[in-house]
Amino acid sequence: ERCFLEFNDNPKRFQSLYELIFEKQKEIYKIAANSPATIVWCPDNITGPVTPPTFFKEFCLPFYNEMADLLHEKDKVLAVHMDGQLRSLVDLIAQTRIDVIEAFTPPPMADLSIKEAKASWKDKIIWCNFPEVLIGACDAERIENYMIKLLKTIAPGDNFLLGCTENFPLDGWEVGFKVLANVLDKYGEYPVHL
What InterPro entries does the entry give (predicted)? Predict the structure, then answer.
């Protein structure tokens, strides 16, 4: 909230601070580029309602592209945490040179389907978060059906990872993760055939 108030009320100060942060972040990314790491993770936590398209285009897009270029020069991969509502940003995210959209969360928690994301981000790896609301609120059959449908959508599985990247309700772990493990054991081998 404070960010947008400053952006609106004090645009020169905001721009100055943005440029300072950009340069400091660039120093960090240069260190990462010269490290033995192969993947560099950016924990931005992007979501459309907090990062509207105009803001993303002006501030995020140039940052991601410059950092991606810096990392790509050293054969590194850039992954950015984007687990929110991404429908309003889908085309702008496609314009970035980000390699991995990490923690992408499909419906029912977010507003962009895996099918739409794959169609828009053909050159990117989608590291999908299984929607944690299903673990806490659904029975084993519904979790299994959702998981099978998800695997059918991503088949054969190119440029796709599935994980549990967020906070899952403890009371759903025993049933939910057992179902996920069983479905993946049965159908999750690459290439996925369902």
Answer: UROD/MetE-like_sf, Uroporphyrinogen_deCOase
- Helix or strand run (H / E) with residue 127: strand 125-129
pLDDT in tens, 36-71: 999 999 999 999 999 999 999 999 999 999 999 999
DSSP 97: -
Q: How many angstroms separate the Cα of 117 from the Cα of each of 75, 87, 166?
A: 25, 9, 19
pTM of structure: 0.94
Tell me how far apart the terminal alpha carbons of the chain are, to the nearest angstrom: 45
CATH ID of 38-187, from 3.30.1360.70, 3.30.450.20, 3.40.50.1980, 3.20.20.210: 3.20.20.210
Distance CA 77, CA 91 (A): 21
Asked whether 125 and 161 are in contact (CB, 8 A), the reply is yes
* Cβ contact 155:188 at 8 Å: no
